[in-house]
TrEMBL record:
The gene is nagB. GO terms for biological process: carbohydrate metabolic process; glucosamine catabolic process; N-acetylglucosamine catabolic process; N-acetylneuraminate catabolic process. Catalyzes the reversible isomerization-deamination of glucosamine 6-phosphate (GlcN6P) to form fructose 6-phosphate (Fru6P) and ammonium ion. The keyword Hydrolase applies. InterPro entries: Glc/Gal-6P_isomerase (IPR006148), Glucosamine6P_isomerase (IPR004547), Glucosamine6P_isomerase_CS (IPR018321), NagB/RpiA_transferase-like (IPR037171). This is Glucosamine-6-phosphate deaminase. It catalyses: alpha-D-glucosamine 6-phosphate + H2O = beta-D-fructose 6-phosphate + NH4(+). Keywords: Carbohydrate metabolism, Hydrolase. GO terms for molecular function: glucosamine-6-phosphate deaminase activity; identical protein binding. The active site is at residues 67, 136, 138, 143.
Length: 241
């Protein structure tokens, strides 16, 4: 795990975007693992800027997202497919048939998860996985628990995650209580991983992920076992370290 300290959010987004852009330039058919939440927005904005200047071409890129709320479709403003369209896919020349997000409208969890797992396997190993960090140490929607779950699964969201994500919804009651998430195996199979963390509210989780034991109680701690994980964190996120 290599840690890069940026002075602020803008700087860490710039660094992460540079790595993603180089991956696409070196390998136009790159498979990118993408994430949602407020943290990666600055990265997507930077990538869009470079695309608009003619410096990036997404036409052959494939993307596989980490997760989706169960019950939310592409048209739901807080759904992750909607988010990806809004912040990246609708702003660049990506072929949307090569963009994958778990199907939140599939209410049969086993079916939704098996189908997504098949997509992950079919597309091959992810070249570069972008991750945000939950304040409780989650990655994707791999919530703290007793075991690491390898495959795509349906997650019962923890109370703290529902609370944290309620800022995007009109009320806490509107936050779906379940989600589909890529498992730890899918994430750990990526060739390179970028973990982005910004702000004081991530400081404790980041400290535990970087210096604590490797434990499913802090899902991000597993990243220490990955040979190529780069953490981009700002001063506030590193304030406990
Ligand atoms: C959600 C997503 C995660 C994301 C996390 C942190 O729970 N499932 O993938 O990393 O939120 O979000 P934020 O960046 O908004 O703090």
């Amino acid at each position: 795990m290599t840690i890069y300290e940026g002075k602020d959010y803008k700087e860490i987004c710039e660094k992460a975007a540079e790595l993603i852009a180089s991956e696409i330039r070196m390998n136009p058919r790159a498979v990118l693992g993408l994430s949602t939440g407020s943290t990666p927005i600055g990265v997507y904005d930077r990538l869009v800027e470079w695309y608009e200047k003619g410096q990036l071409d997404f036409s052959k890129v494939t993307t596989i997202n980490l997760d989706e709320y169960k019950g939310l479709g592409a048209e739901h403003e807080q759904g992750y497919r909607f988010f990806m369209n809004q912040y990246l896919f609708d702003r660049v020349n990506i072929d949307k048939s090569r963009t994958f997000v778990p199907d939140g409208t599939e209410m049969d969890s086993d079916k939704a998860c098996c189908e997504y797992e098949e997509i992950i396997e079919e597309k091959g190993r992810i070249d570069l996985q972008l991750l945000g960090l939950g304040a409780n140490g989650h990655i994707g929607f791999n919530e703290p628990g007793d075991v690491f779950i390898p495959d795509t699964h349906c997650v019962r969201l923890t109370e703290s995650t529902v609370e944290a994500n309620s800022r995007f919804f009109r009320s806490k009651e509107e936050v779906p209580k379940e989600a589909y998430s890529m498992g730890i195996k899918g994430i750990m199979q990526a060739r390179h991983i970028i973990l982005l963390a910004s702000g004081k509210q991530k400081a404790q989780a980041l400290y535990e992920a970087v210096y604590g034991d490797i434990t499913p109680g802090v899902p991000a701690s597993i990243l220490k076992l990955h040979p190529h994980t780069a953490v981009f964190a700002d001063e506030e996120a590193l304030s406990v370290i």
